[in-house]
Design goal:
Elements: H1 13-24, H2 31-49
Amino acid sequence: MAAKHKLSVTVDRALIEAARAAVAAGRAASVSAWVNDALRRELASEQRRTPDTQ
C-alpha cells in the first residue's frame, strides 16, 4: 500500500455526516477510508474521460 499523508480540507457538513454514517453502518473502515475511496473513484472516472495521449 502507498504511504499515507495527512491532508486538511474543508468539507460540506452533509458529506461529513454521510462519511460518519457509512462508518457507523460498517460500509467504511473510517472517514479517511471513505474519503480515499471517493478520491480513487474520482480519479478513475477522470482517467476514463481523458484518455492518455502519450
